[in-house]
Design a protein that fits this description.
Shape: globular
Largest sheet: 7 strands, parallel
Order of helices and strands: EEEHHEHEHEEEHEEEHEEEHE
Low-confidence stretches: 1-25
Mean pLDDT: 88
Radius of gyration: 18 Å
Distance between the termini: 48 Å
Length: 217
């Protein structure tokens, strides 16, 4: 076993060296994800923010795409944002027209997000929202919607259970990508916002499930 410059451990294999997989956390840190496909995420975030009406209460998850929703909610009036994301809290904390509620819980330092049973229970029993905005690491026509970290997936499931409308923010690079764990079937989603029109097979599936597909161009 050797160490890389970043401090990670490398495991010897017959074909070379690989980083040992950590089943509890395979995600990339939030600062790296925020700058990946940044322009696309910004378009999706701006489009999603346009769906939020004054007076509404919304959940925003701790994904990098959802952070761009928060960026476009500034200067809005009479909106309540419930989130487990420290970055969303910091983005909106100075906005007089936006009430921000943080779920609390155990801090995932890599993602600057709060997870765990305490946060899940509070979301399920203490709050109700008009909409939840969330993202994922991939979607598959055959298998559904996937996340990268089980603890984050459990928070999102709690948000689904306490929301009137579920909005998936999913850029085209995530189509037909698998991950672990599975987050949900498509029946859990009412609206998908993406950056490009999906192909015919995807459109047929979304129409069959009565899922609205909105293109952030």
């Amino acid at each position: 076993m050797k160490h890389s410059r970043s401090g990670a451990c490398w495991k010897r294999t017959y074909g070379g060296a690989v980083l040992p997989e950590r089943a509890e956390d395979k995600s990339v840190c939030i600062s790296e994800r925020e700058v990946t496909n940044q322009a696309v995420k910004d378009r999706i975030g701006a489009f999603a923010a346009g769906l939020v009406a004054d007076g509404e209460t919304i959940f925003i998850d701790a994904s990098s795409t959802s952070l761009f929703v928060a960026k476009h909610l500034k200067a809005r009036k009479d909106i309540t944002v419930i989130t487990n994301a420290e970055r969303v809290v910091l983005e909106l904390c100075d906005e007089e027209g936006v009430r921000v509620i943080c779920t609390g819980g155990a801090l995932r330092k890599k993602n600057l997000s709060y997870v765990g049973e305490t946060a899940e229970k509070l979301i399920r029993t203490g709050f109700y929202a008009d909409k939840v905005f969330f993202s994922c690491c991939g979607i598959s026509q055959k298998f559904g919607i996937f996340d990268a970290v089980e603890a984050e997936a459990n928070i999102k499931k709690a948000m689904f259970a306490s929301s009137k409308q579920t909005v998936l923010l999913c850029d085209s690079s995530k189509f037909e990508k698998l991950g672990f764990p599975k987050l949900a079937d498509f029946e859990a989603v009412q609206t998908i916002i993406t950056d490009r029109p999906p192909d015919a097979a995807w459109r047929q599936m979304f129409e069959k499930l009565h899922i609205d597909v909105l293109i952030a161009e």
